[in-house]
Inverse folding.
């Protein structure tokens, strides 16, 4: 069974840093790209960051670029998000999400197939 | 404000059919990037509902279907049931953005 368990959230002040972790199990972690997606309280989903299976390529949403860093340790089956210079608007539940794929005669598809339960980050003075 | 536009809310009576639209542009849906749909029941995490524009993962009832045409996509739910009450999100890829994965703003489905 695929499991993604986030940790590291909490209450911090604006300008502070926080490091989120995601422990993966139940699948070959080193074969999958991963994402972080967040959801502000009562709001919709916002994609945050992406990393390939080998860590060679990363992408960031414009709202976090330069402040957040995604990384992974395949030996530990873990995904990370280092968040620096946190802002009030970064307050959200942060989900660790697997980038699944499906191949058939009609095409190759990539989508968010498994989600962790999330960890809440609250940025407030 | 998302590059994928969804109606904030839709509603329907049990047994009815409802549709949820997802309107994009030439840099995302219109560029032939796939559209996926996610269902978020109250108090739960998002769940993949439709992938690759029209495909249902195993376990998703065939009451849920989706289509894509031009710069838009649509999710249809037939035989509406109380347990379908949730927020539905479309998601695609936008080649014009440095951070290219995009979600619609979400549509709250209310079963009357």
């Amino acid at each position: 069974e695929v499991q993604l368990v986030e940790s590291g959230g909490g209450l911090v002040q604006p300008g502070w840093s926080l490091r989120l972790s995601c422990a993966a199990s139940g699948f070959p972690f080193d074969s999958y790209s991963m994402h972080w997606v967040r959801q502000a309280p009562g709001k919709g989903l916002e994609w945050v960051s992406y990393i390939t299976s080998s860590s060679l390529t990363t992408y960031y949403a414009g709202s976090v670029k330069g402040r957040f860093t995604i990384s992974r340790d395949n030996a530990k089956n873990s995904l990370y998000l280092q968040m620096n210079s946190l802002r009030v608007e970064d307050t959200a539940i942060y989900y660790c999400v697997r980038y699944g794929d499906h191949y058939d005669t009609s095409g190759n598809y990539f989508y968010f197939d498994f989600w962790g339960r999330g960890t809440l980050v609250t940025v407030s003075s | 404000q998302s590059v994928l536009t969804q109606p904030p809310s839709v509603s329907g009576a049990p047994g009815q059919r409802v549709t949820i639209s997802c309107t994009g542009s030439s840099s995302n849906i219109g560029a032939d990037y796939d559209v996926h749909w996610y269902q978020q029941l109250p108090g739960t995490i998002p769940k993949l509902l439709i992938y690759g524009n029209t495909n249902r993962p195993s376990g998703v009832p065939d009451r849920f279907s989706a289509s894509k045409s031009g710069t838009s996509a649509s999710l249809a739910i037939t035989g509406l049931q109380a347990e379908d009450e949730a927020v539905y999100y479309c998601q695609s890829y936008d080649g014009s953005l440095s951070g290219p994965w995009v979600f619609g703003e979400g549509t709250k489905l209310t079963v009357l």
User: Anything to note?
Assistant: Chain A has a mean pLDDT of 96.
